[in-house]
């Protein structure tokens, strides 16, 4: 990320990865696989580049997939530290159907009301908050308010069971799969449906 930032390549590399992720979604849809979402871990600097809405809109014209099938992470610290211009860009993305996931979310640092006001509906809580009753309570409240919860770092059975009990819609971690190439993903999905 540091090298890309110094060389001014954050936006270009981000869009390369966005096109690849959208292509994976499109290929799975073309194979008639039940695709729910693809989550793309974005570089935090992407959101500090000014508006990229025109390029994002072009992405969805070039890759005709439902916008809600491509989720882009945004670190909670970027949301917290956003100046007025950056906050306006984020809100514009959200109003235009770009699905941003507040990554590393901590309800004690960023009130749910602010997220709602800005238009966020997806959150992935910080793993250090897992396995605590106050976190479970916060997750319950977030779900009641219409937020979609995403779990991460589900690296043991207890954590995965806790995340499921707390109502996460999607989760990732070593128990839910290992990194695979796009071709392997398609091949495995087709084999599973036979």
Structure description:
The structure is a single chain. By secondary structure, the chain is α/β, with parallel strands linked by helices. The chain contains 9 helices and 6 strands. It has a 6-stranded parallel sheet. Helix 7 links the parallel strand 4 and strand 5. Helix 2 runs parallel beside helix 3. The longest helix is centred in the N-terminal third of the chain and has 21 residues. It is globular and about 45 Å long.
Q: How many strand segments?
A: 6
Strand order of the largest sheet: 1-2-3-4-5-6
- Unreliably modeled segments: none
Major beta sheet, specifics? 6 strands, parallel
Shape: globular
Number of helix segments? 9
Overall residue-averaged pLDDT value: 91
- Estimate the helix proportion, in percent: 40-55%
Give the C-alpha Rg: 17 Å
What is the SS-derived class? alpha/beta
Kindly estimate the percentage of residues that lie in beta strands according to DSSP.
5-15%
Strand/helix succession: HHEHEHHEHEHEHEH
């Amino acid at each position: 990320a540091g090298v890309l930032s110094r060389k001014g390549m954050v936006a270009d590399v981000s869009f390369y990865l966005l096109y690849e992720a959208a292509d994976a979604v499109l290929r799975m849809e073309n194979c008639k696989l039940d695709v729910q979402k693809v989550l793309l871990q974005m570089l935090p600097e992407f959101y500090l580049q000014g508006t990229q809405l025109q390029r994002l809109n072009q992405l969805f014209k070039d890759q005709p997939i439902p916008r809600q099938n491509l989720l882009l992470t945004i670190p909670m610290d970027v949301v917290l530290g956003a100046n007025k211009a950056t906050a306006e860009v984020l809100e514009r993305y959200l109003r235009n159907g770009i699905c941003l996931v507040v990554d590393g979310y901590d309800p004690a640092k960023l009130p749910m009301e602010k997220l709602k006001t800005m238009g966020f509906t997806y959150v992935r809580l910080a793993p250090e908050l897992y396995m605590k009753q106050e976190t479970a309570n916060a997750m319950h409240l977030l779900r009641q308010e219409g937020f979609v919860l995403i779990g991460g770092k589900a690296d043991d059975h207890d954590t995965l069971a806790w995340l499921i009990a707390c109502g996460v819609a999607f989760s990732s971690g070593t128990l839910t799969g290992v990194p695979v190439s796009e071709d392997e993903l398609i091949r495995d999905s087709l084999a599973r449906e036979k």
